[in-house]
Amino acid sequence: MKIALIQFRALASKEENIKKGVVALRRAAREGADLVVFPELSFLPFFPQKPKEAAAHRLAETIPGPTTEIIAAAAKELHLVVVFNLYERDGRATYDSSPVIKADGTIAGVVRMIHIMEGPGFHEKGYYYPGNRFQLVFPTEVGRVGVAICYDRHFPEYMRALALQGAEIVVVPQAGAVGEWPPGIFEAELQVAAFQNGYFAALANRVGKEEVVEFAGESYVVDPWGRVLARAPARKEAVLIVDCDLSLLNDAPAKKHFLPDRRPEVYGRQKLGKTPRVR
Fold it and tell me: Which band of pLDDT confidence, cut at 50, 70 and 90, is reported for residue 279?
């Protein structure tokens, strides 16, 4: 099974970005991809880099909606499973959401980002409601695909929940900045999640300098043993195609040992407590 990660630089125009996205889908199909993943806010400038602006609300759309219909039609034509990300509007609420589109063009499901970040260049609490849909994994033609949207990847409980819902491939639509984290941790965190939970993980990052933030690129794929299979370049647009041997899932340490040996009756009861003083 081949995954294509679309390392994307957003233009100011949503329409032009969607056209670029469809071109990238066609390229991925030509190169034999089965599953295609786009970054966070796939076809929009990264508007949360600034504190809440009312004008951004006009960028939100429903699912299904105009962008989903275009991408779903391309997925059906090219027989691709596609995960992208958009600013979803549902009534008066707005979410950071990723539709999972099957190769027949139908929507398998929608994941809404659960955890919402607030920090310099990432003022997301002014734009997004916390996700309220708890099915995170969906059956597709390439296997059971789970989604961790950007900030969600930092929560071990969330990454374990994907395994407990049967994920075989976890995709991460990402908006990761240059110099955001200490060297090595950008990959190591997902390597550990894949190893501990027994799935492939594929992160598709934005790239390019915007008004406040410069996005790093460096998209990558790891296998269920935590090994990095391939990386895209830093600070450049790219389509990274990676061949994933799904037979590795059967012998992954997490499948054979870690998941069967869990003791949730012990640590499932724990609550966040205060750190005791050292006397």
Answer: very low
